[in-house]
Write a structure and sequence with these properties.
binds fructose -6-phosphate; three-stranded antiparallel beta sheet; seven-stranded parallel beta sheet; 34% helix; Rossmann fold; alpha/beta
C-alpha cells in the first residue's frame, strides 16, 4: 500500500485525475471501477476538465460502479445511477451502454444479480483501476464492518451509522433505502490497481485503522493491505492520525523517481 499525503482535497483530486489520464492513455479500452459519495466529486470535476481540454477520452472505456441502492428507480435523484450520469457520464464521451451499476429490484433475485455483475466484470477483462472512498467506519463499497473478506457482489444491510452519514443527501421525510447491492471485498481486491481517496478529519480514524491497524473484517478497508497495487491519496486532515507519517513520506519520496521513469501502471 502506497500512501501519499497532499495539502488539501483539490490536490488529492488533481493527482487522482492524472492517474486516470495515465491509465487511459496506456489503455484506452480500460475497465474502470467507480465510486459515488462526496469524496470523488472533485475528481470527477477534474476528469471533466481534462476531457474538455481533449487530454482524456473515455470513448472506448467501460465502467463498473461499486454499489447501488436496492430497488431504487434509476431516475430517482438519490440513485447512484443518477449521481454518475449527472456528475460524470453525461459530461464526458463514455458510451452509457458501457457503464454498469449492480442493480437489483424487488422482482429480481439478489443472488443471481450479484453473480451476473461478477460475470460482466470478467467479460470486460476485469477492473484495471478501482476507485474507492472510505466510510468513517472503515467500509469500502457498502462492505460494512464484519463483512467477509472473501465476499462477492451481493445485497447488504447498511449500518445505522452509514444510514445516518448518508441522510444528509435525503430530503426530510423522504424514504431512505436501508439495503444496497455492493461489490464484495474479494471483488474489489481482484482489481489490478486500486486508488483510495480520503479527505477530512472525519476519515482520520478509519484511515489509520486501514493503514496501521491489523487486517480485520472490523475495518473492511484493512483488506487493502493484501492488495499488491493500492495507492492511498489523503489530505492532511485524513492523514492526521497516521502513526508513521514521516516514514510514509520518505517512501513516497523514494518512489517518486521510479514512478516518473516507469509510470504508475507498470504491471498493466
Ligand atoms: C460509494 C461507496 C462508499 C463511499 C464511502 C465514503 O460508492 O461505496 O463506500 O465511498 O461511504 O463516502 P463519502 O465520500 O461520501 O464520504
Amino acid at each position: 500500500m502506497q500512501v501519499l499525503i497532499f495539502e488539501n482535497k483539490q490536490k488529492v483530486a488533481f493527482f487522482a485525475a492524472q492517474l486516470f489520464k495515465e491509465l487511459l492513455q496506456l489503455k484506452p479500452a480500460a475497465t474502470l471501477g467507480l465510486a459515488t459519495g462526496s469524496t470523488p466529486i472533485e475528481l470527477y470535476k477534474e476528469l471533466v476538465k481534462l476531457y474538455e481540454k481533449k487530454e482524456i477520452s473515455f470513448s472506448k472505456a467501460a465502467s463498473f460502479n461499486l454499489d447501488e441502492y436496492y430497488d431504487i428507480d434509476e431516475g430517482n435523484r438519490n440513485s447512484y445511477r443518477y449521481f454518475m450520469n449527472s456528475m460524470l457520464f453525461e459530461k464526458i464521451d463514455i458510451n452509457l451502454k458501457n457503464t454498469y451499476l449492480p442493480t437489483c429490484n424487488q422482482y429480481q433475485n439478489p443472488g443471481q444479480q450479484g453473480k451476473h455483475y461478477e460475470a460482466l466484470i470478467q467479460e470486460c477483462g476485469g477492473i484495471d483501476l478501482q476507485l474507492l472512498g472510505i466510510g468513517a467506519n472503515g467500509h469500502i463499497g457498502f462492505n460494512e464492518p464484519t463483512s467477509s473478506l472473501a465476499s462477492r457482489t451481493r445485497i447488504k444491510s447498511l449500518t445505522p451509522q452509514t444510514i445516518q452519514d448518508n441522510s444528509r443527501l435525503f430530503e426530510k421525510g423522504e424514504s431512505q433505502p436501508q439495503l444496497a447491492m455492493t461489490m464484495g471485498i474479494a471483488t474489489i481486491l481482484d482489481a489490478k490497481y486500486i486508488v483510495l481517496l480520503a479527505t477530512g478529519e472525519v476519515k482520520a480514524r478509519a484511515v489509520s485503522d486501514m493503514v496501521n491497524g491489523s487486517l480485520s473484517a472490523n475495518c473492511p478497508a484493512s483488506a487493502l493491505q493484501m492488495h499488491p497495487n493500492t495507492i492511498v491519496l489523503l489530505d492532511e486532515a485524513a492523514a492526521s492520525q497516521l502513526k508513521n507519517k514521516e516514514y510514509l513520506q520518505w517512501v513516497a519520496n523514494q518512489n517518486e523517481s521510479i514512478v516518473k521513469k516507469h509510470g504508475y501502471f507498470k504491471d498493466l
